[in-house]
Specification:
Number of domains: 3
CATH class of the largest domain: Alpha Beta
Distance between the termini: 81 Å
Helix content: 25-40%
Oligomer: single chain
Radius of gyration: 25 Å
Number of helices: 21
Largest sheet: 6 strands, parallel
Strand content: 15-25%
Length: 558
């Protein structure tokens, strides 16, 4: 058997031994040995994607949902470049991902050979580890070396993407009827543990908490944020948690609903913190970041990955330790009155927003509230970038304990959102999945919809169709009407009924508030994937948001 075929079978077998369950493969010749080994392995599910960009984002979604790296494989040349956006998102969101690019052998590089580009360090600093082992060769102990390569790739990918560039010489496939076998002993053990807080870290934060009269917690995106909920409840502080933190839930004592409205009202100016504990990613809310910067309170950023996620550079203390371990070790503080002020104000603002939504024009707030009311107790939502993630942060009430939220908040792009959401749905196929996306995002990754029919992915796609980039209507660009519509709003004019028909989806249009909840409820319960398209005007979105904030501010004044 050719050494390249034996390498591929052995390498893939070790990936499976290390817990890899999924591989997203785009067709190509140079990658044939790895693709065939993946397809033939009984413990790895192969998901074929024609579009490499969609394939890489699908693998990204699998990593977000399962916490394990999926493999994404392509042939040499520009196919490998298509992976770059997903690699960037994986790096900044710390999502496990193993990128495998097949390559031409050294003698075919820089000589004008077909489909040969420079793939060395192709993704630059956006990978945790890059390695090119060269073409497979018969060496003493080769199977052990090949297995170690796979095992290290899985271990390195625990905190973000890795890139293996694998060159192959022809012949690229074995003779007909020959199936290569893996060699060597499987299952090298690689383990890691939590970064426990030092006595100094614990003492510094505990002392600051005891002195503070108005401390609060700000929680950004976290995959397993619910693990710190008991510790936060015991501390007894207000918790401003966006949905993607997995902490905007009743069981998180002190969780404040509708905090965006509090931050936009004068109420927050009179209730500024004298200590801030930040966990998770950078807050999505612009109002939150501006408020924290203006407050200039002593800020403790708990950041186990040394990522310095502090865009306004206000954190005086950066603690590189496990958030759960540190928060569990802190002694409780008695700030019940301060906490209850925030919680009560959040409820009052939320009630005012709910009352206002009855009479405002249809916009993202209605979609979020309708989805929240109809989502099953156990479900997951993938929220798109731009307006959907901001609407979810502004309008989603306290979620149920088994509901989970995902998004591409590492780089916050709109590329690949369909595929990432469908990857999340595949990784957790045991519970209903809803993708909440803007119309531009769906258009940007329309190719990703192909996976629904090809691989039987069950998901509901809710499209906020305001015929363009609605987020720009909230930005200063909107004050330049002579150029705004063409270069910022970019209206699509697409008929989503045709898109749904092309990809075999049930099409469910909504143009009135009264039709929202029934449409979403029916879509989630259907056996076939459904696209719920909610049409509204961008100007109505701006006015609707403004009316909600004004109502909340008035309620807080009363």
């Amino acid at each position: 058997m050719d050494v390249a075929q034996t390498f591929a079978a052995t390498f893939v077998d070790e990936l499976a031994a290390q817990g890899v369950e999924y591989a997203c493969v785009s067709p190509g010749s140079r990658s044939a040995a790895i693709a065939m080994a993946l397809q033939r392995h009984p413990r790895i599910k192969v998901i074929v994607q024609i579009d490499e960009r969609s394939s890489s984002f699908f693998a990204l979604g699998l990593g977000k949902a399962t916490g394990k790296p999926a493999v994404v494989l392509c042939t040499s040349g520009t196919a490998a470049a298509e992976f770059h956006p997903a690699v960037v998102e994986a790096y900044y969101s710390r999502t496990p991902l193993i990128v495998v690019t097949a390559d031409r052998p050294p003698e075919l590089r820089d000589v004008g050979a077909n489909q040969a580009i420079d793939q060395q360090q192709l993704y630059g600093s956006a990978v945790r580890w890059f390695f090119d082992p060269g073409t497979p060769a018969e060496l003493p102990g080769a199977p052990r070396i090949w297995r170690r390569l796979a095992a290290r790739a899985v271990a390195e990918a625990a905190g973000g993407p890795v890139h293996l560039n694998l060159p192959f010489r022809e012949p690229l496939v074995p003779p007909p009827g020959q199936v290569p076998s893996a060699e060597g002993e499987a299952g090298q053990t690689i383990t890691s543990g939590r970064i426990l807080p030092t006595p100094t870290q614990l003492a510094t934060l505990a002392s600051a908490l005891q002195r503070a009269k108005r401390p609060l917690v700000v929680a950004g995106e976290m995959r397993d944020g619910e693990k710190v909920a008991p510790a936060l409840t015991r501390l007894g502080l207000p918790v401003l948690a966006e949905p993607g933190s997995q902490l905007r839930r009743p069981e998180t004592g002190g969780a404040v609903e509708s905090y965006e409205a509090l931050l936009r009202a004068g109420w927050s100016l009179e209730h500024g913190p004298d200590l801030v504990i930040r966990i998770g990613g950078t807050p999505t809310s612009r109002a939150m970041n501006a408020w924290l910067a203006a407050a200039a309170a002593p800020t403790f950023l708990i950041d186990p990955d040394h990522s310095w996620r502090d865009q306004d550079q206000v954190a005086r203390h950066i603690l590189a330790t496990d958030p759960q371990a540190l928060l569990e070790a802190l002694p409780p503080v008695n700030r019940a009155a301060w906490r209850d002020e925030w919680v009560a104000a959040g409820k009052k603002a939320g009630a005012a927003i709910s009352a206002t939504l009855i009479s405002t024009p249809l916009h993202e707030g209605h979609i979020v509230r309708a989805l929240a009311s109809r989502l099953p107790d156990a479900a997951q939502v993938f929220v798109g970038s731009s307006m959907p993630i901001r609407a979810a942060d502004s309008f989603w009430p306290l979620a149920k304990s088994k509901q989970r939220f995902y998004g591409n908040r590492g780089a916050s792009g709109i590329d690949g959102l369909v595929s990432t959401g469908l990857g999340v749905a595949t990784g957790r196929s045991d519970i209903p999945t809803v993708l909440l996306l803007g119309d531009l995002s769906v258009y940007h990754d329309m190719n990703g919809l192909w996976a629904i029919g090809r691989h039987g992915v069950k998901a509901t796609i809710v499209v906020c169709d305001n015929n363009g980039g609605g987020v720009f209507n909230f930005l200063p660009q909107a004050q330049h009407p002579d150029v705004f519509e063409e270069i910022f709003a970019t209206p699509l004019g697409l008929d989503f009924a045709q898109i749904a028909r092309l990809y075999g989806l049930v099409y469910s249009p909504v143009t009135e508030r009264s039709g929202l909840e029934p449409a979403i409820n029916d879509a989630i319960e259907k056996a076939t994937p459904t696209m719920v398209v909610v049409k509204f005007k961008r100007d109505d979105s701006v006015s609707g948001h403004r009316l909600c904030w004004e109502a909340a501010a008035a309620a807080l004044r009363d």
